[in-house]
Amino acid sequence: MPIRIEDSVATPPIELLHRFEGCLLGLACGDAVGGPAEFHRRGRFPEITGMGGGGKFQLAPGEWTDDTAMALCLAESLLACGGMDPLDQMQRYWRWANEGHHSTRATAFGLGKTVANSLMRFHRTGNPLAGSSAPDTAGNGCLMRLAPVAMYFWNDRQAAIEAAELSARTTHGADECLASCRCLADILVTCFAGATDKEQILSGIATLALPDGLGRITAQVFRDAPREQIRATGYVVDCLEAALWCFWHSGSYAEAVLLAANLGDDADTTAAVCGQIAGAYYGRQGIPDDWAGVLYKRDLIAGMARGLLASTPESPALGTSASAGCRDNSAERSGYGVPA
Ligand SMILES: [Mg+2]
Q1: Ligand 1 centre from 330 Cα, in Å?
Q2: Residue 238 belongs to some domain of the structure
Q3: What range defines the domain where residue 217 resides?
């Protein structure tokens, strides 16, 4: 039985399951729509109007990049381990980087420098909390994949926020990364709790003790900022602000994601982060059929969203509340190679 959130505002109630599917499919669709604009300066590429394909990686329509691949590794780990297990998460990221696990292709592509360095550090030391805390490593690679964590802990805001921070630490240990992930987790769980207006969704930001580096987020500058002020770079705070700007200044999932994609630069990740929020807010039905219809591994992604909902701690469906050790729910591997 799907769980129904009883919304009291004018917007029709959206089933929690549809918010979950919207969030994870929304991440992947955002990644795929924004992918062709990645690495292009704003205004220096043909306007993105839908799921077009192309770009540096010569993406097929519906094909996504590292953002979604890492999110699927994280979702799979939460499901296999019955909760947060950083070691298992890093092992799955390693398999993605080395063997193409959950990639759309035989090999991984789009692997960022910060993630690559953290995987090498993990390989060397065995410590899964391998993210550097150096300020110049505050990339958005921890934010782009976050959705499954917020989904798994959707009914416990504090647990979601803490788990979000822990999930960042595997590859991104800088303060701005940890704080940005706390912030996004708060926004997503507010959506999952049935919020129907954007003021309500953003209200939690004010209650989070965010560091100075997130001053523009705390002050919610994005509400009134002109497009020229929004920087869709790989810096985690820029990325979060850009995603929030797109969400705030749009009226549908598609409109939000297209705004994000057309910012250029780190367009796939801006759109993937915006897609998580807009997908959780507008629900699965907000994603255009012709986008979802061509999305790579659509059934796997929707299935993981359903699995995360069924696996929520204290959920009557399963009643799991603690890790019972990981089971590898994909092919067993004997070891891990060296990242490409
Ligand atoms: Mg990418």
Answers
A1: 23
A2: yes
A3: 16-48+62-310
